[in-house]
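re: that chain from earlier
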Amino acid sequence: MANYPDGDKRGNSKDRKARKLWLLSPAAGFGGNGDFAPCAMKVSPACQEIVDYGSMDVDRIDPGCSGGRYVRGNIRPACKPCNNHASHIQKREKAAAVAMA
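^ sequence. v structure.
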């Protein structure tokens, strides 16, 4: 398992592929059918994105900056716009917290 400077342990390509396939499966509980799943982030209530293996981002519910890991109980399928929007919010919040310290 690769270690990244921020302590993020994403696993190898086989691990990442297995996570994406699981998120698309009905067993994950996100409404997937094995090929497609709805975006589970829904940063915007209007988000109706359906993602597939190639277009899906794997989002951590508890973010990495808070110690969240890429494990089944902490991941969900996300569309790129929702995941990017949430990432920008987290970065702004983290910068504000550092500025206040």
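The chain has a mean pLDDT of 84.
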